[in-house]
Write a structure and sequence with these properties.
Elements (H helix, E strand, L loop, with lengths): L1 E4 L2 E3 L9 E5 L2 E5 L7 H10 L5 E5 L5 H4 L2 H8 L2 E5 H7 L8 H8 L13 E3 L5 E4 L2 E5 L8 E5 L2 E5 L3 E3 L2 E3 L9 H13 L4 E4 L21
Helix pairs in contact: 1-3
The structure holds zinc ion.
Zinc ion (ZN) binds next to helix 2.
Length: about 220
């Protein structure tokens, strides 16, 4: 694990998508897990780390590069797994993905189909949920209907709500976005919250231009 700031780590073995770990109040909260193919290495990395017990896993959304290793982490740790209710329905196969592109991606088995963790804890999607003291799941729809971000001590762990390019939040390609209006609102809300650090689902954590703090922007490491 690589420490980003005090209490916040980026896992090194998560495959394709980023996984982050927050230490708070004697517990560890994992945010996203990467692909299923990285599960064994991720579980080993967590087991080798000197961290409090992993009690919770928050999945920002249902895509396999974020939810893929959640079931394995749950088996190893007994952690609760949280995901937006709308995405839980898609993950369990109870509801079709929301766009034609996403339906095609699922039919073709794009990045595989994640094993569904047992007893998913569903985030309602219309309100924030405090997962642990100060670790808050915030609805951030657009990329998927039930997408969430995690806010902790001024840091925003945003999943695929946006990418970061040269210190600015930018959208993913349109074909990956389920609802552009929602995605616009989510991106604006993240920027308006002026996070001191943004941890995206893909690429390196970074500060946003104009968010205060260190005037010379650099990758936190
Ligand atoms: Zn992703």
């Amino acid at each position: 694990m690589k420490q980003l700031i005090d209490g916040l780590f980026r896992l090194e073995s998560a495959r394709a998508g980023n996984a982050y770990l927050i230490e708070e109040g004697g517990r560890s909260v994992l945010v996203d897990t990467g692909l299923a193919s990285g599960a064994r290495a991720l579980v080993a990395e967590l087991a080798a780390a000197r961290i409090p017990p992993v009690t919770d896993v928050v999945l920002t959304h249902y895509d396999p590069d974020h939810a893929g290793a959640a079931a394995a982490v749950q088996r190893a740790s007994g952690a609760r797994v949280w995901i937006g209710a709308a995405d839980a329905r898609i993950l369990r196969g109870e509801q079709e993905p929301p766009t034609r592109t996403r339906r095609t991606m699922q039919r073709l088995g794009w990045l595989g189909r994640p094993e569904v963790p047992a007893g998913l804890h569903e985030l309602p999607g219309h309100a924030e949920v405090e997962i642990a003291a100060g670790v808050v799941a915030v609805p951030a729809p657009g990329h998927t209907p039930g997408h969430h971000l995690v806010r902790w001590r001024g840091v925003s762990l945003i999943g695929d709500a946006a990418r970061i390019s040269h210190g600015e939040l930018v959208h993913f390609p349109g074909f990956l976005i389920s609802d552009r209006t929602q995605a616009d609102a989510t991106l604006a809300a993240i920027a308006a919250s002026r996070p001191r650090l943004v941890c995206p689902g893909h690429g390196a954590p970074d500060r946003l231009v104009g968010s205060g703090g260190d005037a010379s922007r650099h990758t936190a490491s």
